[in-house]
Amino acid sequence: MLFDEVIGQEFLKKELIKGLSSDRIAHSQLFLSPEGSGGLSLAIAYARMIIEKNNTLEGTSLKLSELKHPDLHFVYPVAINKEVKSKPISSMFVESWREFVHKNPYGNLLDWYLKIGVENKQGKIGNDEVEDLVKKMSLKSYEGGWKVTIIWMAEKLNITATNKLLKLIEEPPKDTLFIFVCESTDLMAETLLSRCQTSKLSRLSKKNIEEFLMKKGIDKATASSAAASGFGNLRIALKSISESENNKEFEEWFLKWVRTAFKVRKNKEEVLELVSWSKMISKTGREIQKSFLSFSMNVFRSALLKNYEINSLVSFEPKTDINFESFSKYVNGNNIEDIFSEIEEAQKGIQSNGNANMIFMDLSLKLTRLIQKQ
């Protein structure tokens, strides 16, 4: 990650470069970065400039670009998972971290938790983590220059870890930089904040996001729409594009689902098709399943509005051959609350790691009754 690749934040980039040029580098810095504004990307680009300064060793740039440089350290929230059974620290997740940063540098904490399979746990930066960091910082620089530690989502530092870290940043080893990246300082200790030089990132402009998306090959209309929906958050803008691509597949699943549900009333053997459909959905990931249920709820909501001719509020735009106008006549005030209730129960079941096959089968059987309730 280079400064030129960091979206927006031009004023802050100039200030950081100016400080570096005049050798004014605060040993403890905090980047207060709203979600999707690029705090992590900026921290990595800044760290790279510092480590590369006056460094002519071959291979330094490659190691930094691959996040494998021995003088660049990362700390981030972690928790136990299927592979790490106890005392989790960042170094145990380093390969997943590198993949995450390269593929999703504007991702948030949930994206990271999903990456390492701890989305149902509370990650933290704990005492074991800081003890490991103290050991690393006590060693000499591998290349004779600066050592940089980026602490991402620093608001997840617990109080014990914070107190231990304070001792390190109050008397830092020579040419050592700590960059704290956070979305909010509300949960951070005042004793830590008072020792950091704080830089505040601004939300990205619509133009920033739109230009970035177009450079990635997104057409202007889609890029403009996504940028507008992002409200300065690149993560949300990217997510809206991804969801748009997923929605056609979701619509195909939905179409198969409701068509079969209608057929069951006339032909009980069609239940086997619902069994097959439920098995197919259950083989996808839980996040996909939850997204599909949210999509389905939106289709039912739009159908209700269509049925009552409140077309200005209909947000669903069919991409398949579904006869939406005909379908909407079956969604009304007598069944919409029950349909929503059952979908919400299914969402809770998926969130609680319930048996997805059983959850979708149960929901499907209930839908066969509710969809024709007048």
Describe this structure as you would to a colleague.
The chain is of the alpha/beta class. The protein has two domains: 3-203, P-loop containing nucleotide triphosphate hydrolases (Rossmann fold); 238-370, Up-down Bundle (Zinc Finger, Delta Prime, domain 3). Helices cover 53% and strands 7% of the residues. The chain is built from 16 helices and five strands. Strands 2-3-4-1-5 form a five-stranded parallel β-sheet, sandwiched between helices. Strand 3 (147-152), helix 7 and strand 4 form a beta-alpha-beta unit. The mean pLDDT is 92.
Summed up:
This protein is an alpha/beta fold and 374 residues long.
Oligomer: single chain
Find the structural class using helix and strand composition: alpha/beta
Question: In CATH terms, what is the architecture of the largest domain?
Answer: 3-Layer(aba) Sandwich
Mean pLDDT, nearest integer? Answer: 92
Counted beta strands: 5
CATH topology of the largest domain: Rossmann fold
SSE pattern = HEHHEHHHEHEHEHHHHHHHH
Rg on CA atoms, Å: 25 Å
Q: What helical percentage do the residues reach?
A: 40-55%
Q: What is the topology, as strand order, of the major beta sheet?
A: 2-3-4-1-5
| Largest β-sheet summary | 5 strands, parallel
Beta percentage is 5-15%
| Shape, principal axes of CA atoms | elongated
List segments where confidence is low: pLDDT < 50 over at least 5 consecutive residues: none
As for the number of domains, it is 2
| Count of DSSP-assigned helices | 16
For CATH, the homologous superfamily of the largest domain is named as P-loop containing nucleotide triphosphate hydrolases
Briefly, what CATH class of the largest domain? Alpha Beta
Through-space gap between termini: 58 Å
